[in-house]
């Protein structure tokens, strides 16, 4: 990464006790490119943290910049209030999942889904450096629609003051995936039930322009590309 | 619910300290039908729990039966090992999220997504009653493809012994949604940036039949319906 002061990463993330699954370990991967590809295909994560001893899981947007993930929120929101720079940080688990297919086996037991997921464990810290905050907020917008941050009005002082940004480094990370067809037992192959995979796709419909668009405002190329 | 011993539910879930959001409270709902509709449209949740004091968030399938959610897993998996009937149960947070649209405002600050989510807080317990386990496992299969459990081979004794089922009652529950168009500041409306909503859709592609289907096995009607 240029300009972010990050060292060149190793090829793989080092597995740890909590990133090695207790079952189906062959589905786990610590490959950096695999992890980045899964993260880059999404923009919504499920962020888990502990409040009063109990787990909380909230959906939120994220952005990746090299080996750092950023999420943002109102400075008044509960999870972000717990991550001031003066604090030791907030232990979190950030998970991103893509569903690729429904796996319908002849046996109920072997039903499954094809999916790709990334689970990141770590301690989130509030970002206070103005330049890093700017990079992070652009990344979160561009994660949803690449190229969009440069084609919108940047946050002003008041908006920046209302926005908390937290960072989670990609260190304790694993990807997990199921791909391929059904895994029925050999003795079930003659059963008369249909079996196979139903592919799941995420698609975009035609963009709905705001009724108050300034005259002459055209649909930008990055949206034509996204929704074609 | 017939046959599950559940009392007729009240119209709304009672809000609690942790189901009332600290921001955008107008987006929250405790309406039972709204919650059920969001849950019934999905089949994948993100399940959070606490392990060694730190949060863990894993994607997993679920099924709804009345006011109960069920998830299953290998009896050897870590979260389920902590929920034996002898235990006090496992505090969890189960979250289901649907993305409906990308909200592109003129200002970077007002970018958002349209979504619907349900967050369930509670204590999960292992299900040991054989009949409730059967109902739960059918529900998890039918949550993915309605009608499928009746058109597959039921789990045998060995498969049942390898499967843990846990239950989470719908008691401390909220839904949250963002709908509608962009929320730009009035003074930004003349800016020359495109603004609007890009609808996000989840679709199915044509089912891919297993190459070893028994001769004469046709695509079932519930799949024709799902993927048309």
UniProtKB/TrEMBL annotation, chains A, B:
Lineage: superkingdom:
Bacteria
Write down the Pfam families for this protein, in alphabetical order: Pyridox_ox_2 (PF12900)
Q: Where is this region: Disordered?
A: 1-30
> Which InterPro entries does UniProt cross-reference here?
Pyridox_Oxase-rel, Split_barrel_FMN-bd
Write down the Gene3D superfamilies for this protein, in alphabetical order: Electron Transport, Fmn-binding Protein, Chain A
* Protein name per its UniProtKB record: Pyridoxamine 5'-phosphate oxidase family protein
Organism phylogeny: Bacteria, Bacillati, Actinomycetota, Actinomycetes, Kitasatosporales
């Amino acid at each position: 990464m240029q300009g972010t002061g990050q060292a060149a990463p190793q090829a793989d993330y080092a597995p740890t006790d909590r990133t090695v699954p207790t079952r189906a370990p062959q589905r786990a991967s610590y490959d950096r490119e695999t992890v980045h590809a899964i993260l880059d295909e999404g923009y919504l994560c499920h962020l888990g943290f502990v409040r009063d001893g109990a787990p909380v899981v909230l959906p939120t947007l994220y952005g990746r910049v090299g080996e750092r993930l950023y999420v943002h929120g109102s400075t008044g929101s509960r999870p972000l209030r717990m991550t001031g720079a003066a604090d030791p940080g907030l232990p979190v688990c950030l998970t991103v999942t893509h569903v690729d297919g429904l796996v319908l086996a002849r046996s109920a037991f072997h039903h499954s889904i094809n999916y790709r997921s990334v689970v990141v464990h770590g301690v989130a810290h509030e970002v206070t450096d103005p330049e890093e905050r700017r990079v992070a907020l652009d990344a979160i917008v561009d994660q949803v629609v690449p190229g969009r941050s440069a084609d919108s009005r940047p946050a002003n002082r008041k908006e920046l003051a209302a926005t908390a940004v937290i960072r989670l480094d990609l260190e304790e990370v694993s990807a997990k995936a199921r791909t391929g067809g059904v895994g029925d037992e050999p003795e079930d192959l003659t059963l008369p039930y249909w079996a196979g995979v139903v592919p799941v796709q995420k698609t975009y419909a035609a963009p709905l322009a705001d009724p108050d668009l300034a005259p002459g405002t055209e649909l930008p190329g990055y949206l034509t590309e996204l929704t074609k």
